[in-house]
């Protein structure tokens, strides 16, 4: 029987890190749903119309390292407010969640809209400063020329847009377990998440 883990939260909270580790630990498949919106955003930067791009999205479009840039993240959050863009991406996400071997999906609306019946819902948070510091570190490691202040402003702007939109806003599901990772190492956050999933499985 399929088992679904929904992981939501703001930018750089640690969703991806936790999702990958939980998927590896339990042998589940993992879908980073942010990549869907990033892929649409990248197509819009290249001149496409958002709804057309979302409807034509191909899984191959997700395998692109260039989706990880701050400019694409901004474009992603801009297309993500459009109801029709979100609607075009629902079926792919739900069919991924239905995989028999179990699935972890991470994003903003997994526990609330995409998989409201998920077996485990985690809402991962951390202070904006913490999250910006992590993202700044990642970008610096990649050689991207930016400042902590720029990254913090970007993270705050995206959070505000994600939380205030009418279509599937970023908000914890009523039955989500909150995990604040501000004072946790990545390994500690992963261990806490695995514990929650283990408890739900037994
Ligand atoms: O997927 P999301 O944007 O929520 O975050 P991520 O890409 O998983 O994590 C952003 C960065 O924070 C990564 O470099 C992690 O190693 C680091 N980090 C973490 O994820 N969790 C902690 N408790 C501490 C650091
Ligand atoms: O890694 P990070 O948390 O910075 O961003 P992401 O998960 O790749 O998502 C990029 C943007 O896509 C977000 O700021 C949201 O606007 C949008 N998104 C969404 O609306 N719904 C999702 N399920 C996933 C992402």
From TrEMBL:
Catalytic activity: dCMP + ATP = dCDP + ADP; CMP + ATP = CDP + ADP
Segments forming domain Cytidylate kinase: 5-198
Main location: cytoplasm
Iron listed as a keyword: no
Record-level GO cellular component terms: cytoplasm
Residues involved in ATP binding: 9-17
GO molecular function: ATP binding; CMP kinase activity; dCMP kinase activity
Top enzyme category: transferase
Record SUPFAM superfamilies: P-loop containing nucleoside triphosphate hydrolases
InterPro entries in the cross-refs: Cytidylate_kin, Cytidylate_kinase_dom, P-loop_NTPase
Subcellular location: Cytoplasm
Keywords: ATP-binding, Cytoplasm, Kinase, Nucleotide-binding, Transferase
Gene Ontology annotations of biological process type: pyrimidine nucleotide metabolic process
One Pfam assignment: Cytidylate_kin
Record-linked CDD domains: CMPK (cd02020)
EC number(s) per entry: 2.7.4.25
Transmembrane region(s): none
Keyword Magnesium: no
Family, per entry: Belongs to the cytidylate kinase family. Type 1 subfamily.
Name of the molecule in the record: Cytidylate kinase
